[in-house]
Design goal:
It is a single chain. This protein has about 325 residues and is mainly α. About 65% of the residues lie in helices and about 0% in strands. The chain has 15 helices and two strands.
């Protein structure tokens, strides 16, 4: 990157950067702050996300997130945390939470929780810039390489996720000839570099994206490999959202009844109680099974928990299709 120059020889000195956003992120991610507060504060101050967007990313109520951010800001002020990148020797210990922030910014841009746009390209491009900068700083860090690989492999699909009329296009229906092969090649090379060092949750997610990129057609997707990779990811990064994605992959491998059974195990998971993608996934499997009334209810639930207008339009179209079978 043009804004990264050679750092000082003394490992106790901070690297020389001309990137105020990165300095601000490292300031917000100071170890005196709790980890959740680090991530939330950085998303708010350094990346410009609204409190509502951050709360959605954390699966929390907006009021709880607002209180968390306020407490973190006060602690930074009273502790007089310096505005700088850490010393080079301290970077590896500090980078984990920064990567978490960059990842959340990217995913929030990939599927904006609220608003009229499905994609916030400004957030995605900003996150990619930060990931590339971190890779310049720490080229041998497997987490950094894995995250950059994941972001590149995911962003390669950006031009196919919306139709010419602005409607959501699912992965199964995207024109794969328009995927960015240069980004896929770069991401795959970074993934191999990351896996040679140490498997990380980012690298495993990148491997899942690479499986999709390797499939010439949707029908060629190796769902057995994807489910196996989600099993690995569950061990590295236990998360209800990972469990949800694994359940969907099971349904695409073994059929909608198996997928629905796997999803139903997650219905009592508190973190997914207001997560619209769980209801949307159930609705899709119920639709495939011809269980129209239950599918309609699930689509209505998904709509009640979805604030992005592009996603709402897609769910509404599917709901209307299902209702035609109930008339």
């Amino acid at each position: 990157m043009d804004d990264v120059v050679a750092g000082p020889e003394d490992p106790t000195d901070p690297p020389v950067l001309d990137d105020d956003r990165l300095r601000l992120i490292f300031t917000c991610c100071h170890p005196t702050l709790a980890r959740d507060a680090q991530v939330a504060l950085t998303l708010r101050l350094a990346c410009g996300l609204s409190t509502a967007e951050i709360a959605r990313a954390f699966l929390l109520q907006e009021s709880a997130m607002a209180a968390r951010i306020t407490r973190a800001k006060k602690k930074i002020s009273t502790a007089r945390i310096p505005f700088r990148v850490p010393a080079r020797a301290d970077l590896p210990a500090r980078v984990s939470v920064v990567l978490e922030v960059v990842y959340l910014v990217f995913t929030t841009g990939y599927a904006a929780p609220i608003g009229a746009q499905l994609v916030r390209q400004d957030l995605m491009d900003g996150a990619l810039h930060l990931a590339r900068t971190l890779y310049q700083l720490l080229p041998n860090d497997s987490q950094v390489a894995g995250l950059l690989a994941l972001m590149l492999l995911t962003d390669a699909r950006r031009n196919t996720r919306l139709s010419d009329t602005g409607e959501l296009v699912l992965l199964a229906d995207q024109d794969r000839t328009r995927w960015d092969r240069q980004r896929i090649a770069e991401g795959t090379a970074l993934l191999a570099h990351s896996l040679r060092q140490k498997p990380t949750s980012y690298a495993v997610q990148a491997a899942i994206a690479a499986v999709h990129a390797e499939a010439e057609h949707w029908e060629d997707t190796d769902w057995t490999q994807i489910v196996a990779l989600y099993d690995v990811l569950r061990r590295l990064w236990p998360s209800p959202v990972v469990d949800l994605n694994r359940a969907v992959a099971i349904g695409l491998r073994d059929g909608p009844q198996a997928g629905l059974a796997a999803l139903d195990l997650l219905l009592e998971e508190p973190a997914l109680a207001t997560y619209g993608y769980l209801s949307a996934a159930r609705a899709d499997f119920l639709r495939r099974l011809g269980r129209w009334e239950e599918a309609a209810t699930a689509y209505e639930e998904a709509l009640a928990m979805t604030d992005n207008l592009v996603e709402r339009a897609f769910l509404t179209r599917r709901l209307d299709e299902v209702r035609t079978h109930l008339a």
